[in-house]
Amino acid sequence: MKNLNPKPEMGRRNGVIGLGLMPDHWPTTSNINVSFQYQQQQQQQHPFPSTPAPDEPNSQEEEISKGEEAVAQVRKEVDILEQQVLALQVVVNNGSKVDGKEISYLTEMLMMKLLKLDGIEAEGEGRAQRRMQVRRVQGIVEKLDLLKLRNSKL
User: Fold this and answer.
1) Nearest C-alpha neighbor of 77 from the set 129, 112, 126, 121
2) Which of 20, 34, 120 is nearest to 72 (CA)?
3) Is 78 left (phi over 0), alpha (psi -120 to 50) or beta?
């Protein structure tokens, strides 16, 4: 096997793999000074960049409403799945056996909704709604597990 690194000591320093920066490629002091001066100019022009202008909409409020909207959308999807679970529950409680694939499918769909809820970033009320929906979905999955057990005994 051919060694691609002609000088192994150049790629490692004290047993640590470097980033491939060689001493002759390190930034010079003049580059650092120019960069620092540019940052100072930007700060002088925009001393408080995180404060939105009065006529601009508040992005935090938009994020909150987007989070709440996303939770509401997932809630609607979970409502539909919950109705299907309740229908299966009625069938099993009446003594009829259902296909195990239906129970597995609903469980997988609910797990996907949990992942969707996990990906939603929300603050305040949206966060509380998301937490409530996560607990709701977990409860429905537990019902499905019991339903699967009861179905297997039929």
Assistant:
1) 112
2) 120
3) alpha
The two structure tokens encoding residue 132:
């409530």
Question: What are the tens digits of pLDDT across the range 54-93?
Answer: 555 556 666 668 889 999 999 999 999 999 999 999 999 9
Helix H or strand E segment including 13: strand 12-13
pTM for the complete prediction? Answer: 0.59
Give residue 95's pLDDT band: very low, low, confident or very high (50, 70, 90). Answer: very high
Strand partners, 17: 12
Of 124, 131, 125, whose CA–CA distance to 74 is shortest?
A: 131
